[in-house]
User: Fold this.
Amino acid sequence: MHAQDAPKGGVSRRLIALDYDATMEAIGEVLAHSPGHKVVLEANRLVKRHKVAVEYYEPGGERGTIAALAGDNLRKLLLREDVKLYDPRTKRVDQPFTEGDCAGEGICGTCLVAVEAGAETLSAMDATEKVITKGRPATWRAACRCIVGAENQDARLKIRLRPQSAGGAQDDAAGGEPKTLAAAGEDPLASAPEVGV
Assistant:
């Protein structure tokens, strides 16, 4: 429905880019406020998106749960909810002498998460993500490359944020027992270049 389609005295609602539930609510409002008027509806690819619960854990132990919809990008979802995704100490894959993230372009490797449950409900790892996670535990994913509920299914996803941070890593080969990088004899900053000011 577009504003120019509203009959005189009628009600108009813009439906473009609304999810299924919001679209149905808007249609109901128009019908309730337009008795006796013709209602014109144009629907394009209207699909009900399933619900996904994303449970996250911070390296310091804080946790939270976000209600998402199937098809949401994991990075965008976390940032929209003001969840701290990036560790500023993480060395970029694409530009190791540069700090900061690539704003979701999928090339820097600074938005890593460890998937502890629900990995099968994420989009498949593409070639770019395989480069970003090469040499990392198999459960690590780049949040910018992940779509939650990829097959439009209800899902529960459990992730650990910033697994590359000291105190946030886990050695997957050791049977899933929590193990910090420092305890494993690995210093996440040891290979980072010294930068003079």
Observations:
- The longest strand covers residues 51-57.
- DSSP finds three helices and five strands in the chain.
- The CA atoms of residues 33 and 165 lie 55 Å apart.
- The beta strands are 51-57, 63-69, 112-117, 140-142, 155-161.
